[in-house]
Amino acid sequence: MGVDREAPVLIGPIESMMRWARGHSMWPLTFGTACCAIEMMTVGSARYDTDRLGIFFRASPRQSDCMIVAGTINLKMAPRVKLLYEQIAAPKYVIAMGSCAVSGGPFADGYNVVNGVDSIIPVDVYLPGCPPRPEALIDALLLLMTRNAAGELTAAQRWAAREPA
Ligand code: SF4
């Protein structure tokens, strides 16, 4: 990307400009299923002021590019999680927040608990802890933004590449 000295316009491949923009913003879906969601809500509070980082929580999957799975997912909730994920436009990202979303956590032996949300949807970042601190979630969001800026494939794109056409 560069500046044309004759005409003061910014020129560059549209792809690199979009990567730059995506590398400076992340709009997670406001969605939680259990106690980890309290930590996620804290991230959205004035104390952390994530607006300064380009992180804005949205109430609709159609305005989001990131899903934070914050909490235990049971079998009854799993189809709703998948539906919300599918309503987010690509490219989209998923953070499995807390040991419940990563692997079922303390409820892994329960008859109705999904042992890891990656059995339903592709996961980009696994965030361990019970619960992870708000700073850890902010770090995960910043990691995703760094990967965007570098043009790395999303977990969804890697899943799609593995599936037969
Ligand atoms: S990982 Fe811990 S804090 Fe998070 S939803 Fe599960 S039990 Fe609650």
Describe the structure.
By secondary structure, the protein is an alpha/beta fold. It has a single domain, classed as 3-Layer(aba) Sandwich (Rossmann fold). The chain is built from six helices and six strands, in the order ββαβαβαβαβαα. α2 (36-43) links the parallel β3 and β4 (66-70). α2 (36-43) packs across α5. The longest helix is centred in the last third of the chain and has 16 residues, at 134-149. The radius of gyration is 17 Å and the shape is globular. The chain starts with a strand and ends with a helix. The site of iron/sulfur cluster has 12 residues, from α4.
Compile the SSE list and pairings.
Blueprint lengths: L1 E3 L4 E3 L2 H9 L5 E2 L6 H8 L22 E5 L7 H10 L5 E5 H6 L21 E3 L6 H16 L5 H8 L3
Parallel strand pairs: 3-4, 4-5, 5-6
Antiparallel strand pairs: 1-2
Helix pairs in contact: 2-5
Bound molecules: iron/sulfur cluster (SF4).
The shape is globular
Share of β-strand residues: 5-15%
Order of helices and strands: EEHEHEHEHEHH
Mean pLDDT: 90
CATH topology: Rossmann fold
Count of separate DSSP helical elements: 6
CATH architecture: 3-Layer(aba) Sandwich
The span between the termini is 35 Å
Proportion of residues in helical segments: 25-40%
Highlighted features:
single chain, 165 residues, Rossmann fold, 4-stranded parallel beta sheet, two-stranded antiparallel sheet, 35% helix, binds iron/sulfur cluster
